[in-house]
Amino acid sequence: MLHPRLTLALSLSAAIGAAAPAAASETSIYASLRQSILYTDSGTNNGDTDDLAIVDQDSRVGLQGNQSFGEFSGFGRFEVGFDASLEGNNPDVRLGYVGVSGDFGIVSVGSQWSAWDTYVGAEHTNFVDEGDWQNGTRRNSSTLKYAGRIGEIAVEADAVLVDKEADPASGESLNSGVLDELQLAVGYSIGGFTLNAALIERDGGPNGYLGGGSLIGARVSYEAGALGLSFAVAQDDAQFGGDSEETLGMKFRASYAIGANSFLAVVTTADNSTAANQPIGVALGYQHDLSQRSRVALELSSVDPDIAGLDSSIEGGVMYRHDW
User: Fold this and answer.
1) Lowest mean pLDDT: which of 155-169, 177-191, 307-321?
2) Which candidate, 206, 209, 211, 186, places its Cα nearest to that of 196?
3) Number of helices (H) and strands (E), helices first, in the chain?
């Protein structure tokens, strides 16, 4: 039996093709294998917690296509993540959406990257822990998205609709309304600088989505040839059972590329006023491009949780990635 989102994507793609049989169309299949040998020390004070293992790092396979008809284009994408390390994990849907684009911009519906992640929370390292500097979601299911431009300003809006999720403990719905989360984002570039900002408003009912409350953040980045710098800040005001939990997170990222080699440094911090702790994370990385589709990455990170009874955690390893 096909996954419901795959059935929807294929059905709409067929409908688009039937409506414009003479129009240009393009379909492709892609995949990315991402395997690492990862060392982890979880940082507890209760004995040896070291671990060395072969770990899959979000390997995926997908199908994407578009169909042009007149002044508009229809498109769709379905992507499944799988565990190439054969640990027995079931495939999971990473992306699954369809949409239409034109002079008005882009409108899409389904599981897709969040506006928050694109504008503020992005620029992830390859596979090691950077620290919990912000709580915005990377991908959301059941999302209606609009992306376009107002003059020189890029705009994006996500409406995360009710997904009928249930609390594993109580079985009660985690949603109290039709709209779980609203995300708004804007971006502007001038010279080598890019200024981005984003806002998330979550359902604050009795079963508030992801704790309810709001999340606001901004990212300033600068690129000059091989050098890339960025600084991001996020203020999260989550509501759990009526209690506010405020977290101020910051992230500084610096990268430099020379030939087939690139270097990375990331520093993060998250000041949780409720828990009275301020974890700090540091990550260092090196990547070498073996070819246009293959690369190897080395990374090392350490996160000080600033919690009594916990030492700093350490992660490090090597990852091989090949794209098709």
Assistant:
1) 155-169
2) 186
3) 2, 17
Which residue, among 204, 206, 165, has the nearest Cα to 182 in the 3D structure?
A: 204
User: What is the distance between the terminal CA atoms of the chain, rounded to a whole angstrom?
Assistant: 26
Distance CA 268, CA 43 (A): 18
Q: How far apart are alpha carbons 23 and 110 in whole angstroms?
A: 24
Predicted TM-score (pTM) of this structure? 0.80
Alpha carbons 174 and 211: distance in angstroms, whole number = 9
CA dist 163 and 137 (Å) reads 15
**Three-state secondary structure call for residue 236:** strand
Which residue in 260, 249, 265, 324 sits closest to 299, CA to CA?
265
Give the CATH fold of the 4-323 domain: Porin (2.40.160)
Six token digits for residue 36:
């690492």
Q: Which amino acid is at 189?
A: S
Paired with 285 in beta bridges are 264, 299
> What is the DSSP pairing of strand 105-113 with strand 59-69?
unpaired
Coil, strand or helix at 179: strand
Predicted confidence at residue 46, as pLDDT, reads: 54
